[in-house]
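Margin note from the TA: students keep mixing up input and output lines. Inputs are the sequences; the output is the structure of the whole complex. Example:
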Amino acid sequence: MGGLCFEDVEVGNRYTAGPHSVTKSEIIRFAQQYDPVLEKIDEEAAAHSIFGGLTASGPLIFSIYILLTSQLQPRLHFLGGLGWDELRMPNPVHPSDELDLELIVLEKRESKSKADRGILRLRIILRNQRRETVLECLVAVLIARRPDAKASG
Amino acid sequence: MGGLCFEDVEVGNRYTAGPHSVTKSEIIRFAQQYDPVLEKIDEEAAAHSIFGGLTASGPLIFSIYILLTSQLQPRLHFLGGLGWDELRMPNPVHPSDELDLELIVLEKRESKSKADRGILRLRIILRNQRRETVLECLVAVLIARRPDAKASG
């Protein structure tokens, strides 16, 4: 754990992580478990779909965004998510795509009920190697306050 | 594929699927891959977390909702998702929870650009065996129109 706390983060700050290399086997394995439609599992069927080939399932793209959140440099001391808004996946993800996460701090405020945490509102953008957005959303997250800040909080 | 088309679905209709039984190994395996924080992977660490035990990662809960969408009875002939709004996960998911999906049709309209499809706006609710909501959101999806409707569309 550890990492940047509420006091270390300013509105407008940007944090990045990645790339995550998407493989054909990851796309197929994920779809077999959680999105078992033929054109997400079978290359032949996928070739005849509107995408002309295998594409990653929506929840896999969402999972990769969460994975990259854990790889931010510097790390941020997140305590949990409060919810996502305007979640969109405007472009498909294909095998061999390289995905990068960008996280932009839109808003910060102290928690009214708990002195040990604050709330950040973030814009999330996941892009492929051609800089096309493959996932974007707004998210509100809890982030730890610095221990020395609690006393005065 | 196949299943109910745009013409078969009315505003106010409800469709259900489930249950999906969540296992400890599914929670741990998913977190190891996509949400590798100690208290989602290690039972000992989880016992000392604010939840007092292992809980499912957000993207796993989202994945289970998508999985159950493929198990609706009757099936719906979805062509893809357009985006999610107001995605919330108000209660944690624990090992041995049994999750049920409810999908409520809020709105339907024809596609302006493509005669072979329509758009549904749905409320999604995923509940555990105690009827507590563990995921809810609004989603817009593309659904196939009946082949015979295309000619007149």
